[in-house]
Structures are given as C-alpha cells and as structure tokens.
Design a protein that fits this description.
By secondary structure, the protein is an alpha+beta fold. It has one domain: Lipoprotein localisation LolA/LolB/LppX (outer membrane lipoprotein receptor (LolB), chain A, Clam), CATH 2.50.20. It is 24% helix and 46% strand. A 13-stranded antiparallel beta sheet has the order 6-5-4-3-2-1-13-12-11-10-9-8-7. The radius of gyration is 22 Å and the shape is globular. The N terminus is likely disordered.
C-alpha cells in the first residue's frame, strides 16, 4: 500500500510539473497585451472589435525605384475572419476570391475562371496571419500562437515605437509596431520566394481616417527588402454591410464574373 501511495504521489508531482511547464509556455505577456489594448482603444475600441465585414474601394499601385509603373482600381470585400473577394480593374478585370482554405481566380485577359493553386492559398493564409486586424481582433488566439513584447524601436528623430511579435505554431513570425499613443505604424514579416531566397515584407500604415467611429488607414505602403513595391490608397471604406455569401461562390462561367459587383 505504501508503494502504491508513493506511486500516486510522484505521479501527481510529475503531472503538476508538466502542467506548470505548459502553463508557462502559454503565459500571457502582459506588456504585449497592454500595447494591443491601447491600440484597439485608439482606433475605435468596441466598435472596431465588433466589425464583421468591410468594403474598401480605391487604387492599387505597383512601384519600382519610387516610380509608379502600373495601377488598377479595386473593390475589396471582406467578411471576417477568412472570406475575401477582390476585384481589380485595369486594362482587364481580374478577381481573386478566398474562403478559408479554398479559392478561385478570374483571369480577365484569358477570360477563364480557375481554382487557386497551393501557393496562392498559402499566400492568402499568410496575409491573414500577418494582418493588423487578425492581431488586434485576436484571430490568432486559441491556435497556439505566442504573443510577446519585443521592446522599443527607433521610428524617427526623437520617437520610438512599441514592438510586439506574434509567432505561430508553424514558426511564421510577424512584428507589429505602434506609436506612443497606440496608433498602428507597421507590420514586418519574412517569406521565401520561388528561388528560395528570404524576402522581408513591411507594411506601413498612414492617413488614418475615422469611418463609423473607427480609425482606419487609407494608405498602406508595402516595402520589399526596404524598397517600396506597392501602395494601397483607399477612396472609401464601409463597415458591417450585409454581404451575400453568393459573391464568394465560384461562378459557373466567365460571363457571370464579368458583370460588375453589386453591393
């Protein structure tokens, strides 16, 4: 009986030790959480957290050597957390639509509708994981991702940003910077291109405009390896419009998707 009791005792100690280690691994970084809370309050508080859908209209520009080499108008429709349809209009109309781990595209030049390939789906998933909305609305919580406070980083003369890092279970890491008053400043992550080269991507947020009580960046500049590669410039943003599921369904023919999106 004594041996049996010792066995129970040491078993409880073992489980207690394992539980303590697991608890430490998922321990909340209070400093990082404070930075997030301050940012949420800065851009709209509960109104921001309760956003279920977003419609953005504007222009997407591609830059090389600080010069715009092409641009397209766009309509971007999002139903959080993982539905998005983006229509681009330039010389031809192109559409990219994603729902979770599936998606389709419309190639306006070839006038064909086709399923997205594995790389395109992975790019969409990475985009969600690197997004400011996913961070601040907590889409990463419950998936094993770890949030930590990195510290202060030089932003401009006499100013430093708070930096937090989000690391997902697959090792993908994103750093987010916030100014002293909580305004989101930028996000930074690394990816590997087709030539197996490591690329650093950085999104910088600017021109915050209050819409429906929510402050949203109307300019998002993308820097690739420190050189500006694109700019998103919104003309308008709407929140919490009713979005029909039908717009995310793959069309049966190119003729259907060529019609203008009605919202």
């Amino acid at each position: 009986m004594m041996k049996f009791l010792f066995l129970i005792f040491f078993t409880l100690l073992l489980y207690g030790s394992v539980f303590a280690q697991a608890s430490n691994q998922i321990k909340t970084d209070e400093k990082a959480e404070t930075v997030l809370k301050k940012a949420v309050e800065k851009i709209g508080g509960e109104k921001y957290l309760q956003v279920k859908s977003q419609i953005g209209r504007g222009r997407f520009s591609v830059l090389r050597d600080n010069v715009i080499i092409s641009f397209q108008s766009f309509v971007d429709v999002i139903v959080f957390p993982d539905k998005e349809r983006t229509e681009f209009k330039g010389s031809a109309k192109n559409v990219q639509t994603n729902v979770g781990k599936s998606g389709w595209i419309f190639d306006g030049d070839a006038e064909i509708v086709k399923e997205q390939d594995k790389v395109q789906i992975e790019n969409f998933e990475r985009g969600i994981n690197a997004s400011l909305d996913n961070l601040l609305r907590g889409g990463w919580r419950g998936d094993g991702a770890v949030l930590s406070y990195v510290g202060k980083r030089q932003a401009s003369l006499g100013k430093r940003n708070d930096v937090v890092k989000l690391i997902y279970t697959n090792g993908f890491a994103v750093e987010f910077e916030f100014t002293d008053d909580g305004t989101p400043a930028k996000s930074i992550f690394k990816r590997t291109n087709a030539d197996n080269e490591e690329i650093t991507e950085e999104d910088r947020y600017a021109q915050f405009v209050e819409v429906q009580g929510i402050k949203t960046p109307f300019i998002i500049d993308r820097f690739t390896n420190k050189a500006q590669s694109s700019r998103i410039n919104y003309d308008s943003v709407e929140f919490n419009r009713t979005i029909p599921d039908s717009i995310f369904a793959k069309p049966k023919s190119a003729k259907e998707v060529k019609k203008d999106l009605k919202l």
